[in-house]
Sequence to fold (338 residues):
Amino acid sequence: MRYKTCELQYLETLSRRTKLTATESAKLFALENGFKGELQLDLALQQAQLPPQLILTDLTLQYHQQVTQLDQLFCLGNTIYLSDAKNYQGHYLFSEHSWSHNGKKLPHNIFGQIDRAQDILGCILQENHLDLSVQTNIIFTNPAVQLEIVDPLAHSCQRIGAYRDYVADLVQQKLPLPQQSDMRWKKVLQAYQIPPYHLQHDFSRELSHRQLRPGICCSRCQHFDWQESFYSLTCQNCGTVEAKEEAYVRTICDYGVLFFQHDLKLHDLMHFFGKQAKENYLLRMLRKHFTHRTSPGKKRSYQNKGAIFQYLFANQSQYFHHIQQRVNWTQRTQYKNE
Ligand SMILES: [Zn+2]
Fold:
């Protein structure tokens, strides 16, 4: 599964609670666009029926002091296929060895990332005596993009539909039998893997000059006004009814994403949840769903993994689904009795 980067999780969470700066907005837009494009790449491989064990997605590799990020990579036959998604809009022209966008020359090379990834990958393969060639593909994932390529390119450039067909053909021609597939390439690359880029500072150093909207944010309409009953919260704006347990745990995760350098503490969370929060209930949720940290002489705190609810509680999705069903069922019964 492909995950949103920590920076994307941070900016999305932040955008619901404060006005983003122009830089943050631009970054959020670029990251969201990039992520949508990468999901398209994953979908293309799935549709081409390439077995998932032959694929590596979203890989950050370090070779000596060089670091590179790879969107997607798979191996068939004696070739590693390295693909980079470009979720671009508008008219792109490649001529006289440079790119223009909507008639204006681009100051940077849009192949920079894949050039670098190809170089580093080549070094790693050579150092580990893996006799594999690297085939690079730039995939334009937005169907509305206009592409005009006049000069020959160093990389193959395709639209997403053509890419899916291309991979489906490769699967037909080259798919090894499971017992014949040599997976050494995967182990070698994973040995060079490092954690993905993370922001250097969390929101705590912005607190002196920026404010966050406190409370539980509706996941459907992003409003903050709720009517509370024993097991559920009803959004006053869109009418969404959410199990109280999930709403609290989800909001604790939001805090965790924005303050990823800090442990979870009841006092700070009460501030984040605002006036409507029930301290006893919040404490119960912390005890039930988060790992207690014991540091002598310090206030009780809980481990912060700094990720959004969907990722952190993916393994408990059945549990939360079940309590939501119970809430829905109670709602329906009440409605009938009225
Ligand atoms: Zn709502």
